[in-house]
Amino acid sequence: MLSCVCSDAQSTPDLSDIVADAMMVDGAVAIQMLKPGCAKTFDEYRAKIFCPFLRSLLHKVNRVDVVFDTYVADSLKSACREKRGSGVKIQVSESTKVPQNWQQFLRVDDNKAGLFHFLTNLPLADVVTKTVIMTYDSNVVQFGESVDTSEIAPCSHEEADIRLLLHCLHAAGCGMKRIIIRTVDTDVVVLAVAFFGRLSVEKLWIHFGMGKHTLVIAVHDLVTVLAAEKCRALPVFHALTGCDTVSCFLGKGKKSM
């Protein structure tokens, strides 16, 4: 879908020329990207890998929101996650050794939930003039300059996809009109295009993909190219072609891994 939707829109391979006020990060994506490397324990992972990552973002913007998924038992999405595989449950703590197989560790929902919770306890006391907000299940924790979070917590959204947009709307209400979303999920792109007009932002970019296959999509340009009716229709077509839990058109199957 992205190749079709974004073919006529402005895009760049990196963020070097973009001036933004805030960045919304899909937390699960960040964890997938940030391999443990030389970190031997989760305390070292947090201090040597995750915190430097956040600080690097704060050099570019005044606010960073890290939005994690929540894992609700017996939800529709939980059945889809079970099909992706399973592994050994590990209790995440400061002294726990980081598993050698990072991807296998992240296949277990309890492991990811434990890691997400662990990472919200950050040594960011020196962040004074800027704001870091991280989700903790339905609530949020924040560091640095305090803002009113009553409009974003508690939140009942299970996945980070739509919650990222809620945080965009909140940041815009705090005066931050130029925002970047970091994700690898096509769902986020579709939702951002569909709801751009309601977010009260002037410019919205999506830093999409990983490694050599990254792209910065200018959503504000894309909505102009597509026009309002097509933007509103995108979620419907994407649900039929890309959603895990929606059936396909009669006689037109979906591609599977």
For the structure shown, list the relevant keywords.
single chain; 257 residues; alpha/beta; Rossmann fold; eight-stranded mixed β-sheet; 10 helices; 8 strands
Residues in helix, %: 25-40%
Classification by helices and strands: alpha/beta
Number of H- or I-type helical stretches: 10
Give the amount of beta strand, in percent. Answer: 15-25%
Class, according to the CATH hierarchy? Alpha Beta
Stretches with pLDDT under 50, minimum 5 residues: none
Q: CATH architecture, please? A: 3-Layer(aba) Sandwich
Tell me about the largest β-sheet: 8 strands, mixed
Q: What is the CA-atom radius of gyration, in angstroms?
A: 18 Å
Q: How many discrete domains?
A: 1
N-to-C SSE series? HEEHHEHHHEEHEHEEHH
The CATH topology name reads Rossmann fold
Largest sheet strand order: 1-8-7-6-2-3-4-5
Average pLDDT value?
87
Shape: globular
How far apart the termini lie comes to: 16 Å
Number of strands: 8
Quick structural overview:
With 257 residues, this protein is α/β, with parallel strands linked by helices. The chain has helices at residues 2-5, 27-33, 42-58, 76-82, 102-106, 109-119, 160-173, 186-195, 219-226, 228-242; strands at 11-12, 22-26, 63-67, 131-136, 139-144, 178-183, 203-208, 215-218.
Question: What does this protein structure show overall?
Answer:
This protein is of the alpha/beta class. Helix content is 38%, strand content 16%. It has helices at 2-5, 27-33, 42-58, 76-82, 102-106, 109-119, 160-173, 186-195, 219-226, 228-242; strands at residues 11-12, 22-26, 63-67, 131-136, 139-144, 178-183, 203-208, 215-218. The chain has an eight-stranded mixed beta sheet with strand order 1-8-7-6-2-3-4-5, sandwiched between helices. The longest helix is centred in the N-terminal third of the chain and has 17 residues, at 42-58. It is globular and about 55 Å long. The mean pLDDT is 87.
